[in-house]
Amino acid sequence: MELREIEIFLALAEELHFGRTADRLHVTPARVSQAIKKQERAIGAELFKRTSRNVQLTPVGAQLRDGLMAGYQQIQEALATATAAGQGITGEFHVGYATAWCGDLIVAAADTFRARHPDCLIHIYESPMLDPLGPLRDGSRDLQLVELPIDEPDIVNGPVLFSEPRALIVPADHPLAERETVSVEDLAEAPLVSITGQPQYFLDLHYPQRTPKGRPIPRGPSTTAWQEVLALVGAGKGISPTSARAAHYYSRPDIVYVPFRDAPPVEYGLLWSATGNIPKVRAFVQTVLETAGQETAAVRR
């Protein structure tokens, strides 16, 4: 079995979907199907059960996956180490993140990166809400994982890694707190607590001036600190939109997170300076992509 065929098999074992596997490996679904059929003929047994609705590993397929995975990871690590030596991936690398859930992904990716590039020291920081792009511009950060959109001529937009549904933070005693869901139109019902320091186009998307029907959204206090947003909402000074996942990290007795039923998701992506250390950035971006893919596959299973 050739290395590319092993990659196809292991990717399909994670994704359990021919289309997603093809997209992930930048091949056609037909190429994936051909590779799996070739492997099954060589082994003499089915590796996957296919129906019109799903794809599942057979016991033989699961055994093959477990047997191949350790060796494949060793090959990848050896290739990554050799690449690092050739590209000079040594010294220090500074990575920022915007939210706790972004931080979880960065920390997991950093652990893998350290194993692959032991001569490169990783530093991880929470990105400031005030002037979040400043650290990229002054060189104190090499890479950041943040909420989008960001559209700046000196900043490179990497891949969008994931998206999260939105929720509205409201005071625990507010009428909206009793609802199962809220609408974007409900932003007109109370002052909007917002942040400052981000580009205006970013604020216009996340903290709009008007609802989709044109109703003005009253403005409440603004701040440069996330904990102050929670405190202001808890004190009854207004309401504020955020990612629904924030409820798992920042629960408080004086606030409630109510899911939006009609708001677009919050997207999160990687950014780096156009003049940054490109070999290190590319290596870390690849590691983050692999880590994000593994976490997504684990959730699906």
From TrEMBL:
PROSITE patterns: HTH_LYSR
Pfam families to which the protein is assigned, alphabetical: HTH_1, LysR_substrate
InterPro entries attached to this UniProt entry: LysR_HTH_N (IPR000847), LysR_subst-bd (IPR005119), WH-like_DNA-bd_sf (IPR036388), WH_DNA-bd_sf (IPR036390)
UniProt entry keywords in alphabetical sequence: DNA-binding, Transcription, Transcription regulation
SUPFAM superfamilies in the cross-refs: Periplasmic binding protein-like II (SSF53850), Winged helix' DNA-binding domain (SSF46785)
Transmembrane segments: none
Domain of life: Bacteria
Span of domain HTH lysR-type: 1-58
Family: Belongs to the LysR transcriptional regulatory family.
Protein name: LysR family transcriptional regulator
